[in-house]
Amino acid sequence: MHALLVAPLAPLPLVVSLPAPLPADLLTGISSFSRSVALYASDMPNNYRFNVQDRDQIEAWIAQGIERLGLEEASRRGRFLQSFNLLVIDQNDGPAAHAAYRQYFPSVRRISRAQSVTAMRTLTLHDDERTRLAAACVHR
User: Fold this and answer.
1) What is the rounded CA–CA span in Å between residue 55 and residue 117?
2) DSSP 45
3) In a domain, 112, yes or no
4) Average pLDDT, stretch 119-134?
5) Are residues 10 and 74 in contact, defined by beta-carbon separation less than 8 angstroms?
6) Pure H helices in 11-126
7) Phi and psi for 127 in degrees, rounded to 5?
8) Is residue 5 in some structural domain?
9) Which residue among 86, 114, 130, 134 sits deepest, i.e. has the most Cβ atoms within 10 Å of its Cβ?
10) How many CB atoms lie within 10 A of CB 105?
11) pLDDT tens digits, residue range 14-56?
12) What is the mean pLDDT of the chain?
């Protein structure tokens, strides 16, 4: 059985100070769940359809989402998303879990799209990039 990581949502900061542009190792060192959260918070269109040639645009949206949320908040929401997905798989997702999920992600369609884009981006990486990404995420 998995525990749902629920904490009260902090209001989004209006301005977040991060170096511009974000360091490349920052983007390779965050989990796929945090990437999905960052895409959710970005200007990615709701109806965006993945295209392997859009890699730079996807990375820019991820960076934008991290700039808006801050790295710690994107990571915290990413851990929540991961724990919620595990509850769904285990069929332990009750009304309280869904209420918390809707608080974090009011648009279920948008977070589903963000997770799909993140997954497709990862699947289309070259083997060496995928290995580097996996190694970087293990250390975070």
Assistant:
1) 10
2) -
3) yes
4) 74
5) no
6) 24-28, 32-41, 55-69, 71-90, 95-104, 108-123
7) -55, -40
8) no
9) 114
10) 20
11) 334 444 555 555 666 789 999 999 999 999 999 999 998 998 9
12) 81
Token digits for 70?
Answer: 């801050």
CA–CA dist 132, 122 (Å, integer): 11
Tell me: the pLDDT tens digits for 46-100? 999 999 899 899 999 999 999 999 999 999 999 999 999 898 888 888 888 889 9
Q: What is the pTM of this model?
A: 0.74
Q: Which long-range contacts (CB under 8 A, 24 or more apart) does 131-136 make?
A: 132/28, 133/28, 136/25, 136/28, 136/29
In a domain, 3, yes or no: no
Residues contacting 22, CB < 8 A, separation 6+: 63, 66, 67
Residue 52 placed within a domain: yes
Residue type, 48: Y
Q: Find, among 85, 67, 84, the residue nearest to 30 by Cα.
A: 67
Check if the beta carbon of residue 134 is closer than 8 Å to that of residue 32.
Answer: no
The domain tally of the chain equals 1
In sequence order, the 6+-apart residues with CB closer than 8 A to the CB of 101 are 84, 108
